[in-house]
Amino acid sequence: MQKVGTVDLNGPRKGDVLEVELISKTSRQAFFSIPNFGTGIIYGVEFINARNIIKKLKEGENTPAKIVSLDSETGYVELSLAEADKQKTWQQVKELQESGEIIKTKVAGANNGGLITEILGIKGFLPLSQLSNDHQPKVADGDRSKILDELNELIGEELSVKVIDVNPRNNKLIVSERETATANIKNFLEKYEVGQEVETIVSGTADFGVFVKFIDNPEIEGMIHISELDHRLVDNPKEIVKINDTLTVKIIDIKDGKVFLSLKALKPNPWERVNDKYKIDQEVAGKIYKFNPFGAVINLDGEIQGVIHVSKFSSQEEMKEKLTTDKEHKFIIESINSDEKRITLNFKE
């Protein structure tokens, strides 16, 4: 067999993938003809890795091979079929990304960040943020163990996904289920516009907001961010809604196949008349709604809240000692800013 001999500078280089022809094979090695260059060999670990491919090859048949070394100890060009096959698969995955084709993949595992999948034998990752609304964990308190429990329930299921990121160098393959739904949802959303009011039903809650489905088009699921639930501060969406509640909401944005909604936009804004009810230096009564690092939020009535800064006390500990959560306390209004929806308070001993 012809060995490498003098290397043509314009010929194949290490790392190149090219078509080679099987010349002969034994139980430990195989020889291939490299067009216009010489003879290649596969042996050792590379032979073991490619044994299934080599077993199916007949003399005279062509197969892709990757050049591992141009100057091996055998004197032949050292080849790898397994690496070439892997590189070919990565190229196929890249083509799936470029075409935007929707493909099926089975969920093989889960972690706190998302789901483990497989595309053409390559392990892929479906991040939590790329799940469809139907499969998005709806855990109200954001508990990671509860989120993982919900993700584990998807193991074994077949999902429709799109390839959105491919990096063979880092063995990185990212897929998205949300992208497949986006194409269909965009068509459904063509009949809706910003400012429109729609009838919805609550399908889930999370610590950051509420998921609702359109009653006249259940394929569409929108989100009401927690800041769009009410004109007052809301710490937990479950204070406002519960599963299967029907809500009339307003569309405030439609973007990238997602629809964002507001409940408070259809409620009277109590801050527009706050100066009719409250005055600076007025004495008011209120109960603690929540403590935060900067002070406390006080419920003055069912609609308006005030804030008292921790600097009104010697420490956080003193503030919590004096502002017990089980009874009303007296406060003095220091300032009112209706535009910023803020009333600042001072504690009345």
Can you give me a brief rundown of this structure?
The protein has 349 residues and is of the alpha+beta class. It has helices spanning 44-49, 51-56, 81-99, 144-152, 178-188, 274-277, 316-322, and strands at residues 17-25, 29-34, 38-43, 62-69, 77-80, 103-106, 109-111, 114-119, 122-127, 158-167, 172-176, 197-206, 209-214, 217-225, 246-255, 258-262, 283-292, 295-299, 305-309, 329-337, 342-347.
What does the model show?
By secondary structure, this protein is α+β, with helices and mostly antiparallel strands. 18% of the residues lie in helices and 41% in strands. It has helices at residues 44-49, 51-56, 81-99, 144-152, 178-188, 274-277, 316-322, and strands spanning 17-25, 29-34, 38-43, 62-69, 77-80, 103-106, 109-111, 114-119, 122-127, 158-167, 172-176, 197-206, 209-214, 217-225, 246-255, 258-262, 283-292, 295-299, 305-309, 329-337, 342-347. It has a five-stranded mixed barrel with strand order 1-2-3-5-4. A five-stranded mixed β-barrel has the order 12-13-14-16-15. Strand 20 (329-337) and strand 21 form a beta hairpin. The protein starts with 16 loop residues before the first strand and ends with a strand. 25% of the residues are buried. The model is unreliable at 2-9 (pLDDT under 50).
